[in-house]
Design a protein that fits this description.
The complex is a heterodimer of chains A (115) and B (1014). With 115 residues, chain A is an all-alpha fold. Chain A is built from seven helices and no strands. In chain A, helix 4 packs antiparallel against helix 5. Chain A is elongated and about 40 Å long. In chain B, 36% of the residues are buried. Chain B contains 36 helices and 35 strands. Chain B has 1014 residues and is α/β, with parallel strands linked by helices. The termini of chain B are far apart. The chains are: A mainly alpha (115), B alpha/beta (1014).
């Protein structure tokens, strides 16, 4: 699969690829490398684990970090979910509606992994 | 990239860092850190970082921690920090700002914005590299506080920026610091220095505006605002305590020298030198670990240096002359020889008292030469008398203790005396007791040899040193001399008398005669006579005199004390004592003696306690130089002229002069009245009565200035002149102040000067520096040269902020300095500060006035409350028919004060006071009795209706006063008045008039009048 095909797939999943590429000064290769790094990163799993343990402090830390990254990467769908986590977590609360949100993020990430 | 600046990216997300690198790597060198701790390590390393891009949420050490750490470290607190945020959390942004963040960038990043923000941040930080260099140039690397240069410049800045404030310049060092280094190692020494630096940082934080630095080694400099000694001493105490806590293994003894800035305009380095001089006075003294500088310290050093410069030539040039102070045998009432003393008659400085040069010569060894010279002169004199066939009494000479160590000392004396063929018994030798404590063995041997050769030995200053009475057992002295000055203490008179009596009695048993020195009054003479003291030497009988006078004294057949002092000698002294006794607790009085033909040759003989109080002299010691030295130079002739007049008329003369008060480093205005007492020879004895009139003079000066500035005001609105060539700046600044000032603008210095010709009544000027035609500096020079414009305060507003430039401006007498970009709050604050400082001064004066008999209120120029009360009470006693007492109270004064500012409120009071003064007769009393209350006493009025009519007029006129206070409100007042024909007191009328006032208020009326006392 060449670069452009991968980018198209990301677009199809709802990512703001054009906006992100502008940010990356058109460097598609770097953009995709960042994707690979993101998928290899443990952050996302750690967020899941923290939510499970109802550890709001580290959950907030991971969610906050991911939020910044998703924003920069233009990963709109997962960014929107992530925002829903960050604010309540900031106040130190792990609410019951969080695991479903995480599940939805997980689904999205799995789709990305397929690409 | 060689010259590119380095940006430190701190973010735990790799992707964010990668992205930032991508965006910035073409312009900057980039260093990454994945958390705050790594970032701090990088900053502490050798790389110079120009900007930090900082994420807030990170593991290990978060962004806030980084901000906090960077802010407190002077190495880093100038590095701009741009925080990367999610953008939705405003609380965090505010928190970050308060922690010292410079700017924000939101995620997702917008490349252009990112670059722009970083570029701005770096430029604003004035180049991190430069800052770093500056750090090295300005900071002490061991302790991280200012180095000497920076401390000086920072202190200079503080002083220049606050011309109205005084500062304490403190030198701190540790006694025997080198011992700590050598006993406990360099590391221990260094950690003590760091500890001191840390302590200074904490301890100076309580002061608004302070500076401190390490000068060198263990010497620190501190500059803190000075309000009173208590605060400074409290600071010293806290420092003391902190130092004691450093180690339990040893005591740290610090030493603080303190210089208080004052009117003298001297460089900070000199101020610090003076603090150092003060510190020397407490070195080696474990009780007194701080000392304030006073000018006597400096004068002493300077005088000493002059003396050292001149001494060798003076000896060659025969400037040293011997004087003799006669000794008197009180038992036989006959003269009994004299002590040879040395006087230095300097061709330019006149007579230098020995107290000034002998201790110095003792220190530098010159005294050996001088001693030899004096001995030889004494021999010449004795030889001369013998040749003339006279039968002189012995003369005694002083031998400084260093001579004792000279193995040839005794031989030299013998050789000298024999060369002049003077019998040894005429040549007595005085040794000080301290020579005994130094080295008793040598001294004893020396004395034995001299006595064997027929010389008599006198023990000088007996009882003043540390030696014990057992000394007399070991040393076979021939005569004891006791200096009465050591025993004169009014508070312990009976104890002193007992000691002296014991010494005399004991010496009788030992068969050693006693000479009492320093005897100045009749009371002491009769006491000494009573206890059986044989000889007396002192002013009471005779002063040290030149050889010619001594010859007249010693060889005149009926020589007696009275012939020296004149027959009325005793009477003079009694008179003096009476006067001094009378004046003991009231007016400062001094007995002075001056040359009848050269009144500038003045000496203070005696003073009373009040005199010392006037001098603020804590030591109560009269320094022996000419008292004119400390009189303001320009005023010296006034005193000399008054002295001349007093001597010529044999009556009295008065003058006013300024005198430097060393202890408080200030000038005092003094009124002096000189009264003729007597002539003794060609010396005239005068009485000087002094009065401190500083407060009155200061008050008059300020009042004059204030009147003038008020006179200059056409309206009551404050006026501001903004001088700036950029219209945008003029507009911005106008917008900050237009609600409080009437704004005038000018686009350059020349235009501003033209405008000021027409409108010289500006309250404040905001001045840009770089302008075409005439720049700020030229404008300031022109303004300062103009007496009308000189006093208008100036605040510099500029983009130029080099220290050199700021220094240059401060020296041109500007009040503050603001660097753009202009921030409203800062601007308003600074302008208020400048205007308020004058206001503060006036409040203090008014408060002071109430206690010191000043009669006018400072703000309004009418009588103050104390005077008003006094005048009204005495007017009432005149029983001049029907009286009316009115209280005029300004409505909503507080609100006016708050909304329009105190400047405006003050001006309003002034206008109102002027108006009221014009409305009443000269015999009526108008006085300000409260913040917004003025009272009037009208005497001899026709009837109650007159008062009613007057109240009506006042309220009309007050509301007609066009004061342009605020747009919405106009001025109004309420009056309470009482009418009476009885002798009512001020207080009683005030209470009842206040009741009327309240009544009027509650009824919604403007005034209310009541007849009382029926």
């Amino acid at each position: 699969m060449d670069i452009d095909q991968r980018l198209d797939k990301l677009k199809a999943l709802g990512c703001d690829v054009d906006g992100a590429l502008e940010r990356f000064l058109g460097d598609k290769q770097l953009y995709l490398t960042c994707f690979d790094d993101l998928l290899a990163d443990e952050c996302f799993d750690k967020l899941g684990a923290a939510l499970e343990q109802r550890d709001s402090k580290s959950a907030f830390q991971w969610a906050h970090k991911l939020k910044g990254v998703y924003a920069n990467m233009g990963m709109t769908p997962v960014l929107n979910d992530c925002v829903k986590l960050v604010e309540p977590l900031r106040t130190g609360e792990v609410s019951p509606d969080m695991p479903p949100i995480y599940k939805s993020m997980q689904d999205f990430m799995n789709q990305i992994k397929q690409i | 990239m060689e010259n590119a600046k380095t940006v430190l990216i701190v973010d735990d997300a790799f992707i964010n860092r990668a992205l930032l690198k991508k965006l910035l790597s073409d312009q900057y060198n980039l260093i990454e850190a994945e958390n705050g701790k790594i970032a701090m390590d990088i900053l502490n390393g050798s790389t110079t970082v120009s900007c930090v891009l900082l994420d807030l949420e990170m593991p290990v050490m978060d962004g806030f921690e980084v901000l906090a750490r960077m802010r407190v470290n002077p190495k880093f607190n100038k590095i701009p920090i741009v925080v990367t945020t999610g953008g939705e959390d405003a609380d965090n942004e505010i928190k970050a700002l308060s922690y010292g963040a410079w700017d924000f960038i939101k995620k997702p990043f917008v490349p252009q914005v990112l670059r722009f923000r970083i570029k701005n941040a770096i430029e604003r930080s004035q180049f991190a590299a430069f800052e770093q260099l500056k750090y090295v140039a300005e900071f002490d690397t061991l302790t991280d506080i200012f180095n000497r240069d920076k401390f000086y410049s920072e202190t200079q800045r503080l002083i220049s920026e606050h011309p109205d404030k005084r500062f304490a310049i403190i030198r701190l060092d540790i006694n025997h610091f080198s011992l700590i280094n050598s006993f406990f190692g360099m590391d221990e020494g260094n950690s003590l220095l760091k500890y001191i630096a840390k302590h200074l940082r904490v301890n100076t934080a309580d002061f608004m505006g302070s500076a401190f630095g390490r000068m060198e080694a263990d010497i620190f400099g501190i500059c803190v605002p000075f309000s009173d000694k208590q605060t400074i001493e409290h600071f010293v105490m806290r420092s003391m305590n902190a130092l004691q806590n450093f180690s339990s293994a040893y005591y740290i003894v610090p030493c603080f020298g303190i210089y208080i800035t004052g009117e003298e305009d001297i460089p900070v380095s000199i101020m610090f030198d003076r603090a150092t001089l003060a510190a020397k006075h407490c070195k080696g003294n474990y009780v007194n670990y701080f000392e304030y500088y006073n000018d006597d310290m400096r004068l002493r050093i300077e005088k000493e240096q002059e003396i050292v410069n001149d001494m060798n030539y003076a000896l060659q040039d025969n400037q040293f002359t011997i004087y003799v102070q006669p000794k008197y045998n009180v038992m036989t009432n006959t003269p009994a020889g004299g002590e040879v003393l040395v006087r230095w008659i300097h061709p330019k400085k006149g007579m230098i008292p020995p107290g000034l040069f002998i201790p110095l010569f003792e220190k530098n060894g010159f005294v050996v030469k001088l001693d030899a010279y004096v001995w030889e002169e004494a021999c010449k004199v004795l030889k001369g008398w013998l040749n003339e066939g006279k039968k002189p009494n012995p003369l005694s000479v002083n031998v400084s203790r260093v001579n004792i160590y000279n193995p040839h000392f005794v031989d030299n004396i013998i050789k000298l005396v024999d060369r002049y063929q003077v019998p040894h018994n005429l040549f007595n030798i005085e040794l000080t007791e301290s020579a005994y404590t130094d080295n008793p063995d040598i001294l004893v041997k020396t004395i034995y040899r001299l006595q064997k050769e027929g010389f008599s030995i006198m023990m000088d200053d007996f009882g003043s040193g540390y030696s014990s009475l057992s000394m007399l057992k070991n040393i076979p002295v021939d005569i004891l001399k006791i200096d009465m000055n050591f025993f004169v203490d009014a508070n312990k008179k009976s104890r002193c008398e007992s000691i002296v009596a014991s010494i005399v009695r004991m010496s009788k048993w030992l068969n050693i005669p006693v000479i009492a020195e320093g005897v100045e009054n009749a009371e002491l003479v009769s006491f000494l006579r009573e206890i059986g003291c044989d000889y007396i030497q002192g002013y009471y009988y005779a002063k040290p005199m030149c050889i010619k006078d001594y010859e007249r004294y010693a060889f005149t057949p009926d020589s007696s004390i009275n012939s020296m002092l004149g027959s009325e000698g005793d009477e003079v002294m009694t008179h003096i004592d009476e006067v001094l006794g009378f004046a003991d607790n009231t007016q400062p009085v001094a007995i002075i003696e001056c040359d009848a033909h050269m009144p500038e040759d003045v000496e203070i003989i005696r003073v009373n306690d009040a005199f010392f109080e006037l001098l603020n002299s804590p030591t109560r010691v009269l320094y022996k130089y000419n008292p004119l030295d400390i009189v303001y130079e320009r005023d010296r002739w006034k005193i000399v002229e008054s002295l001349r007049e007093t001597i010529e008329t044999k009556a009295s003369a008065e003058c006013e002069y300024s005198r430097y008060i060393a202890f408080s480093n200030s000038y005092k205005s003094i009124h002096a009245k000189f009264e003729y007492i007597d002539m003794i020879g060609n010396k005239c004895i005068l009485l000087a009565r002094l009065e401190d009139i500083t407060v009155e003079r200061e008050f008059e000066k300020k009042l004059k200035k204030l009147r003038q500035s008020m006179h200059n005001q056409a309206g009551v609105t404050s006026r501001m002149l903004i001088i700036d060539d950029l219209e945008i700046n003029r507009e911005t600044l106008s917008s900050f102040f237009e609600n409080r000032f009437r704004i005038f603008t000018a686009e350059n210095g020349k235009k501003a000067l033209e405008l000021l010709q027409e409108n010289s009544n500006m309250d404040i000027i905001l001045l840009d520096l770089n302008m075409p035609e005439m720049n700020g500096e030229e404008f300031l020079k022109a303004k300062n040269a103009d007496p009308v414009l000189r006093n208008i305060p100036v605040v510099i507003t500029t983009a130029e902020d080099s220290p050199r430039q700021q220094q240059a401006m401060i020296s041109l007498n500007v009040n503050d300095y603001i660097v753009s970009p202009f921030v409203r709050e800062t601007m308003v604050r600074r302008v208020d500060n400048v205007l308020e400082s004058d206001r503060y001064f006036r409040d203090v004066i008014n408060k002071h006035a109430a206690n010191t008999g000043i009669i006018h209120d400072y703000t309004t120029g009418i009588y103050n409350r104390a005077t008003g009360e006094k005048l009204i009470n005495s007017m009432m006693q005149l029983k001049a028919g029907l009286y009316a007492f009115l209280i005029i109270d300004i409505d909503h004064f507080r609100k006016i004060n708050k909304e329009s500012g105190t400047q405006t409120a003050d001006r309003m009071l002034f206008e109102l006071a002027q108006m009221l003064t014009a409305m009443f007769r000269t015999n009526d009393v108008v006085a300000r009795i409260g913040d917004d209350e003025i009272c009037v006493l009208m005497s001899n009025i026709a009837n109650e209706e007159t008062v009613d009519e007057k109240c009506h007029q006042i309220t009309e006129k007050v509301s007609a006063l066009d004061l342009k206070l605020t747009e919405s409100s106009c001025l109004s007042c309420t009056i309470g008045a009482v009418v009476t024909d009885k002798n009512e007191s001020f207080d009683s009328m005030l209470t009842q008039a206040n009741d009327e006032l309240e009544k009027a208020r509650s009824e919604g009326a403007s005034w209310s009048v009541k007849v009382i006392g029926d």
